[in-house]
């Protein structure tokens, strides 16, 4: 019974997420175990659907050994305009607004309930 529930859950989640992976930006592109002073992780900014770096980076130091291990792209006042333009194109409310699209709100409620049920069976 447990194996069947796990297989059902896997099929359900893979069918739900397959189209999402095709149309999504890669987000998790860092192997955590590989971050070090010699191989620092780099955090980029997302603007107008593209990941961009910067000429200025802020460095986060590893609290265990003091090595710089994460670089974060910093934007100053002169480089903020693309972000402002991108934000001005965003709608004030999204697809998941329960007042504008109650059917979508109910759909995600059903999805959450099914996921909880499958997790309970596993």
TrEMBL record:
InterPro entries: ALDH7A1-like. One of its GO terms (cellular component) is mitochondrion. The keyword Signal does not apply. One of its GO terms (molecular function) is L-glutamate gamma-semialdehyde dehydrogenase activity. The keyword Membrane does not apply. GO terms for biological process: L-proline catabolic process to L-glutamate. Keywords: NAD, Oxidoreductase. Belongs to the aldehyde dehydrogenase family. This is Aldehyde dehydrogenase domain-containing protein. It comes from Nyssa sinensis.
